[in-house]
Structures are given as C-alpha cells and as structure tokens.
Amino acid sequence: MAIDIETPGKDLTISCISISAINIQKWETKTYVLEFNSIHVVRLLRRLVVLPAIKIFQNGQYDLSYLLRFSIIPTNYLLDTLGLFHAWYAELPRKLSFITAFMLRDVEFWKDESSGNRFEFLRYNARDTFGTLHACIAILLEAPDWVLKNYSQTFPLQFPCLLMGMRGLQVDTRKREELEEESNRNILGSLAKLRLQTGVENFNPGSPKQTKTLLHILGATGLESTDSKSMEKFAEMHPLNSRIAFSITQYRENLKFHSNYATVELLNDRLHYSLNPWGTESGRMASSGSHFNYNENYGTGKVPKYKSYGFQIQNVPAEAKVMIRADDGFVIVELDGSQAESRTTAYSAQDEKMIYAVEKSPDFHSFNASAFFGIPFEELWDTVNNKTLNKPIRDLSKRVNHGANYNMGQGVLIATMGEANMYRAARLLNLPSHYTLWDIATYLLVAFCNTYPRLKGTGYVQAKSHAKGVLSLLTENTYYGEIITEIQNTGKLVSALGWTRLCFSDPVTSKPALNKYVAHPSQNLSVALVNRALLRVHSDPTLRDEKVFKLCAQVHDSLLCQIKEDMVDLLLPHVESLMNEKITVHGRILAIPFVGEKPKKSWK
After folding, report:
1. Residues 59 and 208 in one domain
2. Does residue 257 form part of some domain?
3. Residue range 284-305: average pLDDT?
4. From start to end of 258-365, where are the E strands?
5. Whether 24 and 148 share a structural domain
6. Which tens digits make up the pLDDT trace of 362-414?
7. Which residue, 96, 190, 456, 585, shows the most beta carbons closer than 10 Å to its own?
C-alpha cells in the first residue's frame, strides 16, 4: 500500500491524500484519492493506515510529519522508494519522477499536472502513489541482494530522524532579537565598507550585474560570473582585488546569515529541522529546514513559493548556536567522536603511522604538526597540563590534514585557507619569501604525503597532470591506488561494515571522481558508526522517558541531546557506554571514543 499526501496550502494543512494498493495474487492495483476536508476523512484514514498491508512511501518522513499531527499513525511502514533507490544507485537522482522513469517502462511524466485544475491536481496525487507502488515492486524484483543489505542499515534511521526533527530545539527569543540586530549592523557595515572602497555611493554588491561590471573595471574582463570561484580568480589578480573580493564575500556571508539563521521562520519559538539518512552519496546525513513548510504566496494568485520553517542542523554557525537553549530543567550535551574520520581513514588505509598517531599520541594534531613541519612535539604540546603550546601551528596542521586526507589539491587548499592564511603559514614556517601561493600549498601537501605515504605516496601531489598522478598512485602501493583498482575490477566500493556503493565515474580520468571515492570508505564508516550509536541510544528503554532525556540531532560525528539537570551524572555515562563500539577493520580493532562535552544551558 503506497501513501502520499499533498500540502499546497497554508498553516501546515493537508490538501488531499492518495492510497494505491495492489493485490499480488490478482496483480490488480486500485488507487483512491481523498480530499482532506472533514473529520470523517481523518477517522477513515486512521483506520486505513493500520491495515496489515506493508506501507510504502517516497520520503516517508515528510508525509508522516503531517499525518502524525492528526493522529494518523501508519503501521508496518517498511518500504521507501527513496531509501531503496539510494541503497542501489546512491550517485543518481532520487526524485520520484526519476525513479519511476528509471524503473518502469510504461510511465508518462506527470509532475507538471500539479498546477492544473482541481481534477488534474487530484489525478497528480493519484499518479504519485501509483508510481511509488510500482517502482517499489520493480526495485524489489530487480535489485541485487546487497541493495537490501544497504537498505537494512539505513531505513531504521528514519524513525529517530523523524522524532528529532519534530521535537526540535528551543530558541531564546531575546538572544534571537539581539542576533538579528547584530546581523543588520554587520550587513550595513560591510555595505558601507564596500561603497567606501569602490567610491560608488549606491553600489549594490547583491546585484550580479553591478558586481560583474566592477570586476571588469578592475581588470577581470574574462570573468562572466560573480560566483565564489570567480571571486577567487579575481582576488588572485592583485592585492587591491583581494581586498574588494574579501569585502564582497563578507557582505554575502552576512546577508546569508541574516536570512538563513537570524530571521528564519520558527514554529512556537522552536527550531525544527529535517535529517535525511539518504541525502548524500557517501551515506552521511543531509539536513535542511523542517518538513513543515508554508506558501509565501498563498492567497495572492501568484505561483506558489514554499519555504520551510527552521533551518538545517548539521552546519549551524557558532554565532547562531548561542540562541539555541535547553528546555526548562534540562542541559544540552553534545557527544562527539574523537578524531572519528582520521581514525576510520587510518584503519581503512592500514596506515601504521596514522594509527599510532590517533591512538597513542597525546594530541593528534600536534603530532601531525611535528611530523609535517619538523618542530619538536614538546614545543607544540604540554603533556603535563594537556594543552597546546603553539595554537597557530596546530591549527595549520588541522587544515592540512583534513584536506590532504581527501586528496585536496593546491588550488582547493588555497581557496579553503584563503590568501592571508596561506602567507601567514609561510611566515610561521619560515618559508622562502619568493614562494608563491602555489609553492606554499605544495610544500604543505608534500609535508603530509611524506608523513603518511601509505595514503597516496609522494608523487601524486607534484605530478604535472592527473593521469601521471594516478600512475604514481598505482605504482607506489598506495591506499588510493587500491581504491582505483577495486573500482576498475568490480565497479563498486564496499565498506568495512558491508555497505556497498555502485560507482559510475572513472577515478583514472577524473580528479573529482577520485576525490569522492577516496573519501568514501572513511566517511561512510565514520558515519555508519555514529548512526549505529544513534539507533542504540534511540531504542534504549532507560532513555525513553522524555522527562529526563531527549535525543535532539545527529551532527556529523556527534549526537546532540538534552538531559535533565539532576540526572546528568547518572545518564551521561550510560549514553557514552551505548555509543562506544568496537569493530574489526582489516584484522584490527577500531573503537572511536565518544565523550560528552560539558553540559550547557545553550548549545554554544
């Protein structure tokens, strides 16, 4: 039984709901559409959704968010076409229109019917469930066994993700007002600075046309875009350009922060969000605003414009975290996996030196800084007081390690660190004054490769082309070379926990393809361990009482939760013990330590 709702109205309303059911013995399908306009429909739906038939959704979290508000609680929800297709073809689009076109031979495109008359709109809803039902059956009939193994690892995450997003987090309205005022000041300040720099009183950096004209006047006549990559090229042309590019970028960031965080619509002063276990190719969760949305143009006769309440929870800036506070009587605790991705990289690559660094060194990043730059460890880390002695150098090693782990090239390292930080790194390391940005980036990346040659050897970074670099990866007995060989031989990558990814791109001819594939094993393994921990915490009977414990979000390699203030000493060690797990990777025992940070009344 496939179910789908339509929500084109205002104030979280449901317009209609479609149900398609198939009799497998007769191979007969029937579809019904109910307009959601009376309590009688609600009562009928409450009875229909608890029938023993297996329920199928396309991104069921969205539909369930609305249905649960009316106590319409489907049972036996076991299949989701979005999740099934992701388990099979993680690199392909996962919209229903694509899935049905890919899986079904006799299907017509119908997604443009939603803007027609009432009958066409209801038929559109009916075709959604009809397509969902038959696409699901086609996947089950045709998919290899490993697809269902993948699906069995990710589908259970739907339920804690739905719970966490609907529960949300409390927002301090006073702090939010202060944040909005500060955000407005930052926008006006960065705008005034730009107008002073350009000498144009009414210059609008939000206008692509005006910004492109400015770029051309200052010599960048070959640039036809004003996106971030174009601004980077513009900045590299001259120190004056660099200053103006920085100011434009700062203005854009201030504007983005204002609209995405400081003034975003909330529901009852709570931040709601969505977490999607099928949102990325690597298996990492994706996050966006709440499934609850509203039509900005409702009642105006204009084309509907939908916006979500809340914002994504995965990459919240520190400045915005200050307005997120614990519920009354609770404290916020974030349990973070220590060096999670560095550990999974080390064990996946079987790099003895990196394994030693993450497991034995008093401080991983200081160890790296010492190895990268030839500075004695004792000058970087105080082992007695357990604190850093040279924060700038330690921070530099963190940047280099993160990027080099995933095959970052010189250009991307320069763009990521920024011109000012690159030259600062050169001064910190006493590099020759004639070094260009490219020379500095090459020095930093070579330092990483010399420290951990098992990952990608030493030839790739200095190769004149990607093709020559790949040849060095294959001849130097590197981990990256083994990944290339596995893809060439099987067309797949299989993680330590058995999650299989079908690979369509060619890492030999494409550097972006190589980058995403060498990152996949460690990222997939890291997030899989966090997700397994999430499921254990979610299902633990001692943590079911919301009066003492609330699971709030999965944030990359950490879990965010709230604990009753007088229960922290009792419950926090229990949560930590649930999250810690030992697995075997290439014959070695890997255990990522999850430790709760100091409990706080606000997130930051």
Report:
1. no
2. yes
3. 85
4. 270-271, 273-276, 286-289, 293-295, 306-308, 324-325, 330-337
5. yes
6. 999 999 999 998 899 999 999 999 999 999 999 888 888 877 877 888 888 88
7. 456
Query: How many domains does the chain contain in total?
Result: 3
The CA-CA-CA angle for residues 229, 259, 553, to 5°, reads 90
Burial class (CB in 10 A: 0-12, 13-18, 19+), 320: buried
Confidence of residue 298 (pLDDT cuts 50, 70, 90): confident
Asked, for residue 536, whether it belongs to a domain, the answer is no
End residue of a domain, out of 125, 142, 166: 166
SS3 of residue 79 by DSSP: strand
Domain end among 503, 520, 537: 520
CATH code at 63?
3.30.420.10
CB-CB neighbours of 193 under 10 Å: 16
**pLDDT tens profile 572-600:** 999 999 999 999 999 999 999 999 999 99
Q: Which helix or strand (DSSP H or E) is residue 38 part of? A: none
Measured distance CA(562)–CA(141) in Å, rounded = 43
Strand 77-80 relative to strand 55-57: parallel, antiparallel, unpaired? Answer: parallel
Instruction: Assess whether 182 and 68 both reside in one domain.
Output: no
- Total residues belonging to the chain: 604
Task: From 374, 341, 372, 371, select the one nearest 358 (Cα to Cα).
Answer: 341
Exposure of 413 in the CB half-sphere (CA atoms within 13 A):
30
- Compute CA 100 distance to the chain's CA centroid, rounded to the nearest angstrom: 26
Q: Are residues 423 and 491 in the same domain?
A: yes
Look up tokens 């001692």; give the residue. Answer: 542
Amino acid, res. 161: C
How far is the C-alpha of 250 from the C-alpha of 183, rounded, in Å?
A: 12
Residues 127-153 pLDDT 10s: 999 999 999 999 999 999 999 999 999
Q: What residue numbers bound the domain in which 257 lies?
A: 174-262
Q: Residues 6 or more apart from 162 whose CB is under 8 A from it? A: 61, 64, 65
| Cα distance between residue 117 and residue 361, in whole Å | 67
The pairing of beta strand 16-23 with beta strand 588-591: unpaired
- Same domain flag for 127 and 193: no
How far, CA to CA in Å, does 98 sit from each of 31, 382, 497? 21, 56, 29
What is the number of alpha carbons within 13 Å of residue 8 lying toward its C-beta?
Answer: 18
